[in-house]
């Protein structure tokens, strides 16, 4: 059944929140706050009792696919299982009920957690220090690019051309160029070569005195580990540039290949992907970045330092780029990542990557007959296939995706990376069973049979979801972005 | 390992199917120099009971707001969180979902975000809001950058009375875009209108103000927008969302952009995050807005449904020309805010705001009855206020901690000249008894000096 | 999508639970436990990882209707909203992590809660003491009947005929006669009169020297308050019997009419109905009983007593019937009921009953056109209508119930009480909005139209539920009550 | 009021529709003498924050197993509860549902119960199990009553080594059915086989034993069933379900009925309840079983589904001739047990049981190294054992409490002759360090006397 908007529920005068009377001795609001600052009437929020609020959001929740309810092979998103006990840790008053400005002696446990997590992430990255502040992967990218800028500024020699260019492969996540733009850089795009790696020839021609750095995901968004990574790093470094590692795909390399050892100077991790913190339907994430020694002085403030047995937040770092976020970052997300690393240990993390890669290769092997495989190599934790052959039946990747919903599966990422036609980007993660992967293959095979028999069936899929295929064009053409109270704009 | 389903038998069968004999073969693309042979130097693995014991020990090394009576605010508030909010965000269909890229199976998150956007508009009076930012500070920084883009100018003014950390973040963002953030000094704890006029040249993209401001004081907004708009700049207001239960909405005094933090709406303190920023604009700016936006549409059968929309602004499509790089946002915190506002309703939110302000005024009156204690600036304030103490505030705060009190924020951390200033925040979670304890402890400590 | 059995998931060798090694110094099991006591192999439980366990039970949960997801007007069950914060209270370590045998000085908070709750329930009942031990309503009934037996035994005069008979109206819940049987009583059934109350004439003829007591629900299962209750009480008491109040319907009378004031000697409350503790998909409930002064000595042990400012469990009560359950009752359920009473206060509880009765009468008024109303009086918190007129379309109460599922509603109780043909017993509770009641009426009206147009549609309802109409006859004829491992009985 | 949606306007509109002018008119059937005019004498109402503060204060007046190291058992155990269990039982579709009377929308609960029944059968080796009882004590009492019904006899024997409270409950139940519970004395902490033979006349309906018994000792079961069956009686075994991870299942030594408490399987201590009893029988007894039973069947489309079945045994249909009056059971606790067993698996359960027993033996060895401390009876035990102390156990327990230890249960509460007996329980949640603390504290306290 459909669920009305919260504004379409409730009725004037209902309340889900009540208060004890304040008692005498507390003057009325207007004694202290002059009337000119006050609004004429409260905002036009809905009025409901607690049973109505709870039922509404419980029902809404059921209209949502999630890792807890099904297979979610969304490429590049690492939708792995999120341990239940982590939610309990985060809710401990000692973590959830502490204020960012409490005196340091009252938050030693929190600071210790941040200090240790920083070190563990550095160990995974193969780098020397990290900042936990960035709120998400893209925020980490932006911060990393600021570090690159600060570095070059500090090392600039008068008369040199400005280092204002960032090299980014054509298979990169959209956030890479967007972050470069936000940080005031020009972007030069490097194409992929025939094996799905970066085209070395083009790279050689592209690096130079204006190269500030290169952003790379490795394994890349094709799920392929760039075999030339050492050569790439050498080329960029020789040109005076720095290398930024987009950690979105780090689930493939834990304990197996460290970005620092590949030659990267900066790494961001998506704690909400690699380190198993839940994605919250769009966030919060967390995008800490680890850096090599030369970049340490520029890290944002504050940073946690340890002196003897005491932890403190240090703001006084003269070369720092400054602050990229108020307070200290997404602490609640850090708690979960910290617990995850501790639960897994070094062997566990390596097993994570081995199993993630094994699951992906198994699924790839089983899907060969149904799709075109654009780059035929062992993949890492994810892979991209093309639905180009389905076109002969008039079926596109989007149709396959929508039909998968009817089979109870979340579809893969589609139409990305852009370098593959009709791309399906599939990441099973290590927390899925082979039985689930087999069932997914069976579903795709069944859909393939449907495509051959009756393509039109697929054009109108899904059928068994809370709503049918939605008109996204209409939404963009005639934006309806909010509810409005009857009779206009409410009562401000 | 409890989170990893594959067994040895599974692995062997799968390797067979792939056609390799050892999992290492799958990693052969990695050059040996980039391959790790020895194990990482990490603690663990821990079984669940040991892990749990460790995490509880760590949490117990912190003293929290159930143990301490807190008057700390300055952007993060100890407010009452209704149980209904915790129930909603604990629904794992919400918290273990990704960004709603497949709307047909993501109506829960999408509709909740649409409701969030609507509620933000109702609070602020603005036309459109997005699906959340990381927090207030980055929302303000994005607003500054957006203003530059919209006006084609590179200079942004910010009132000195804006939260110092928000100002720092905006400064960092702008500096890397070769734009400039200029501080408009304050006078008596408020934006100095006179100095503003002097700094508002024709190259200013925007003025950033905060209401109530960092010191808890209510900025005079009459005529402010006219002044700013007359020079072709935008007015950006950072407003505490709870205060908007009773305070005038920014749109009404001419704001072009309203931003803020929804932490006070049902989100826990969590040592500073995750919270979520809100970001709302006038209609004309909607296609310049950063971040995700949800819109209503219809399905094949004509039923209402919700989708992510206006994505041509975003990095997936526009790449380096996107309005912002923000991708993952703070949707779950926005959900908490949505459920909070549904629980509070208009009267509830007004009462939360009103109680906080009333208690704050009661606290201020009592505290200023102590010898040598006064308001730093005698201005109308809301639920936070800045005291000037007869001696440095830092040691006083530490002394009060011994009595189980978090007395407020000593402002010396931001500026040496502010070292006797104490920013005190009073929320509806405090009682008159809490206030009496603070007053009596402070009295004793000041007398002992 | 369907969900396999947990036994059909998983694979040999998977684990969701792991342990740190015990270390040296702890001898192997077989050192201490002789082999003759040990089983040959562990039980044939499923083997799964944590992600599989969590997904399985999360998916199962979604295949369940609940108060949190929809209107649940199941007559006699009082499916009202259960405040969310109560679940948090119960989980506080100070409540959830205390052992029933802890020294009393370490559980003063728990004992205080029980002591206060006992007093509050007595106040609502209009009686003098209570026991919180009974685990559910039926357990309360059994306990109450034991008290009646103990009372009569204590007051028996030599030569009197045995008081071995319990009077029960024909509209009573099935647990009443079952409990009487369990307590060793014979049951005499009293019919209902034309107004839906107890037939006084038959009662007069039935009471006598062998009458141990009478069990009554008031309002009764027709949702009607028995106007003759004082006369009924007088008749039973004059005959030397006692009156037992089945509190299943107490949601109608809170603060309005107290069973003690009606003349009852024993009252059980279903905390999971009246006092808003959730029903847990079938339990746990809690069925405390309150009693009049004459019955106090017989109450089961232990009982909480207060001396000065200290609370203690008292076991030494020579006339007690003994113990009806190990330990002290369903403490976790008590915590919720205690919080509920405190949240509502006296006025709130009265409002509960007023609103429950108002909602029921409103719904009855709106349903008059669709059904037959067997007893046309204002109802209390619930009412019974008859679907007899639908028979002309070949539609039965069961069909209506099943079709309601397609409209997103839980059906009312059907075919109970037995005294009404094709009964639908409807209890909306006070936590539903008039909008929901209106939507429910609309659904029934739509179903009525369907019955007129195409009755066969209803015979095969529901259509949109996780499974279609289930063959209950097959289940009873060929009982399949458990999963069995392949190859027989497992490996004991 | 936050839980009550009706507003004044709602109420007026509804009264109009009903056709009465005041809600009081709806209550006119109540005779004035039975109508209450003044308000009830109750505390409250409390807003959520005040309510929360009150409940937290009350909880804080208890010292709990996170603060104290507990060796208390005797039927309620401090075992590790996996987070997955809490997640499942916190799903409000489970906990806010009623008994699954409409199976088409109750497949979640029904399937979980079917899984529970199956798991109980796997643990015990029995053929069939029901959907849960209130707890072990009432399950045992019902087993006694059922045995009487099945055999047509009225005398039930119970071993003195069965939990004293279980025995009391069975005695209460049987007494009111004019049946008799006869205690078979123990010898050296175990059932006295010789006395049993004497008491086993041809009118005995059943023998009730517990394994491991109340004192933690393993009863010798060889030949027991033959002895009982030879006299036409049934053998009823109360067995701790965790222990069945490694101990022989009751069916294997001839039990006709197995009962027990699933508290140790994922249910919290909660001061004694709610827990849940399990109840399993041989095929022949299935239609005599009390309580609800779930069975598998098919829907109109041939898909598997689950329903409550064999309801002709129950009170809805059979009324005073029902096999029992039990109706509401403890389904949510049974669900917890089901998720626990799915999480543990065969190896996990064996490890929980084995660790407990191994640690218990380590503890016993160390404790019996203290002067004057010995096993009450030198018999094989499992994870509980009974010590005889050199002086009364009650004061010793109180003294150990000062050291943060719940040392065990002083058995003097049940029988004066047992006043030096201390029942010590060791679960997998204890560590060797915990045991050392107990040993050292006890050493000190005994020395100080």
Automatic annotation (TrEMBL), chains B, D:
Pfam family for this entry, one: GDC-P
Keyword terms of this UniProt record: Oxidoreductase
EC category name: oxidoreductase
EC numbers on record: 1.4.4.2
GO BP terms, alphabetized: glycine decarboxylation via glycine cleavage system; nucleoside metabolic process
Catalytic activity: N(6)-[(R)-lipoyl]-L-lysyl-[glycine-cleavage complex H protein] + glycine + H(+) = N(6)-[(R)-S(8)-aminomethyldihydrolipoyl]-L-lysyl-[glycine-cleavage complex H protein] + CO2
Database matches in SUPFAM superfamilies: PLP-dependent transferases (SSF53383)
InterPro entries, A to Z: GcvPA, GDC-P_N, GDC_P, PyrdxlP-dep_Trfase, PyrdxlP-dep_Trfase_major, PyrdxlP-dep_Trfase_small
Record-level Gene Ontology MF annotations: glycine dehydrogenase (decarboxylating) activity
Domain Glycine cleavage system P-protein N-terminal: 1-441
Family stated for the protein in its record: Belongs to the GcvP family. N-terminal subunit subfamily.
Chain's role: The glycine cleavage system catalyzes the degradation of glycine. The P protein binds the alpha-amino group of glycine through its pyridoxal phosphate cofactor; CO(2) is released and the remaining methylamine moiety is then transferred to the lipoamide cofactor of the H protein.
Assembly with partners or alone: The glycine cleavage system is composed of four proteins: P, T, L and H. In this organism, the P 'protein' is a heterodimer of two subunits.
Name of the protein: Probable glycine dehydrogenase (decarboxylating) subunit 1
């Amino acid at each position: 059944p459909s669920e009305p908007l919260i504004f379409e529920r409730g009725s004037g005068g209902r309340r889900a929140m009540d208060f004890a009377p304040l008692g005498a001795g507390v003057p009325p609001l207007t004694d202290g706050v002059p009337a000119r600052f006050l609004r004429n009437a409260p905002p036009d929020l809905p009025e409901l009792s607690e049973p109505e609020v709870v039922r509404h959001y419980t029902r809404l929740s059921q209209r949502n696919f999630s890792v807890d309810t099904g297979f979610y092979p969304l490429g590049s998103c690492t939708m792995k299982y999120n341990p239940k006990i982590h939610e309990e840790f985060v809710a401990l008053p000692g973590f959830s009920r502490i204020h960012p400005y409490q005196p340091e002696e009252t938050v030693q446990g929190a600071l210790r957690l941040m200090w240790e997590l920083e070190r563990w992430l550095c160990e995974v990255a193969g780098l020397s220090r990290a900042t936990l502040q960035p709120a998400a992967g893209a925020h980490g990218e932006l911060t990393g690019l600021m570090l690159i800028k600060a570095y070059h500024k500090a090392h600039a020699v008068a008369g040199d051309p400005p280092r204002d260019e960032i090299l980014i492969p054509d298979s990169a996540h959209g956030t890479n160029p967007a972050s470069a733009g936000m940080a005031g850089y020009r972007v030069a795009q490097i194409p992929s070569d025939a094996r799905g790696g970066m085209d070395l020839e083009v790279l050689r021609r592209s690096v130079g005195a204006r190269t500030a750095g290169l952003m790379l995901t490795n394994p890349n968004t094709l799920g392929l580990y760039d075999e030339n990574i050492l050569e790439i790093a050498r080329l960029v470094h020789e040109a005076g540039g720095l290398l930024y590692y987009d950690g979105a795909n780090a689930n493939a390399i834990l304990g197996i290949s460290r970005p620092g050892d590949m030659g990267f100077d900066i790494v961001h991790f998506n704690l909400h992907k690699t380190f198993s913190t839940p994605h919250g339907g769009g966030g919060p994430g967390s995008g800490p970045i680890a850096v090599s020694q030369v970049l340490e002085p520029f890290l944002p403030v504050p940073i946690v330092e340890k002196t003897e047995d005491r932890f403190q937040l240090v703001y006084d770092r003269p070369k720092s780029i400054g602050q990229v976020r108020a307070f200290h970052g997404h602490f609640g997300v850090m708690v979960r990542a910290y617990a995850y690393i501790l639960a897994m240990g070094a062997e566990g993390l390596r097993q994570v990557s081995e199993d993630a890669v094994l699951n992906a290769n198994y699924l790839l092997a089983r899907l060969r007959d149904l799709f075109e495989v654009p780059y035929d190599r062992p993949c890492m934790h994810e892979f991209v296939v093309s639905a180009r052959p389905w076109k002969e039946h008039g079926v596109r990747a989007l149709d396959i995706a929508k039909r998968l919903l009817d089979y109870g599966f979340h579809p893969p990422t589609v139409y990305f990376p852009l370098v593959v036609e009709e791309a399906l980007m599939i990441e099973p993660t290590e927390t899925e069973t082979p039985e689930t992967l087999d069932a997914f293959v069976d579903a795709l095979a069944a859909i393939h049979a449907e495509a051959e028999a009756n393509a039109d069936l697929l054009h109108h899929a899904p059928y068994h979801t809370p709503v049918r295929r939605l008109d996204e064009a209409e939404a963009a053409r005639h934006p309806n972005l909010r509810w409005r109270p009857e009779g206009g704009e409410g009562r401000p | 390992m409890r989170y990893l389903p594959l067994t040895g038998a599974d692995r062997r069968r799968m390797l067979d199917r792939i056609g390799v004999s050892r999992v290492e073969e799958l990693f052969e693309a990695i050059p040996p120099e980039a391959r790790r042979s020895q194990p990482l130097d990490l603690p663990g693995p821990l079984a669940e009971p040991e892990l749990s014991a460790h995490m509880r020990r760590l949490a117990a090394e912190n003293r929290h707001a159930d143990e301490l009576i807190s008057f700390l605010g300055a952007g993060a508030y100890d407010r009452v969180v209704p149980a209904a909010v915790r129930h909603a965000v604990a629904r794992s269909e919400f918290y273990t979902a990704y960004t709603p890229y497949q709307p047909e199976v993501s109506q829960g998150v999408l509709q909740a975000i649409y409701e969030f956007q609507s509620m933000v508009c109702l609070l602020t009076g603005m036309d459109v809001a997005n699906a959340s930012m990381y927090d207030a500070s980055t929302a303000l920084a994005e607003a500054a950058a957006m203003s530059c883009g919209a006006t084609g100018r590179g200079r942004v003014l910010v009132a000195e009375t804006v939260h110092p950390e928000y100002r720092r973040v905006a400064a960092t963002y702008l500096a890397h875009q070769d734009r400039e953030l200029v501080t408009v000094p304050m006078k008596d704890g408020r934006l100095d209108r006179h100095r503003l006029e002097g700094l508002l040249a024709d190259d200013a993209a925007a003025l950033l103000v905060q209401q109530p401001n960092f010191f808890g004081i209510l900025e005079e907004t009459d005529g402010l927008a006219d002044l700013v708009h007359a020079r072709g700049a935008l007015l950006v207001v950072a407003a505490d969302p709870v205060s908007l239960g009773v305070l005038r909405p920014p749109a009404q005094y001419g704001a072009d952009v309203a931003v803020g933090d929804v932490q006070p709406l049902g989100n826990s303190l969590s040592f500073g995050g995750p919270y979520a920023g809100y970001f709302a604009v006038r209609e004309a700016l909607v296609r310049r807005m950063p971040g995700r936006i949800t819109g209503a549409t219809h399905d094949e059968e004509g039923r209402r449904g919700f989708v992510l929309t206006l994505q041509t602004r975003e990095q997936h499509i526009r790449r380096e020309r996107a309005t912002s790089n923000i991708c993952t946002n703070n949707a779950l915190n926005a959900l908490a805010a949505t459920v909070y506002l549904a629980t509070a309703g208009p009267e509830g939110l007004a009462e939360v705001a009103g109680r906080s302000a009333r208690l704050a005024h009661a606290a201020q009156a009592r505290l200023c009855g102590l010898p040598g204690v006064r308001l730093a600036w005698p201005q109308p304030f809301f639920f936070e206020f800045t005291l000037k103490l007869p001696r440095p505030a830092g040691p006083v705060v530490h002394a009060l901690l011994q009595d189980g009190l978090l007395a407020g924020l000593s402002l010396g951390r931001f500026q040496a000249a502010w070292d006797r200033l104490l920013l005190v925040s009073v929320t509806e979670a405090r009682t008159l008894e809490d206030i009496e304890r603070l007053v009596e402890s402070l009295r004793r400590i000041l007398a002992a000096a």
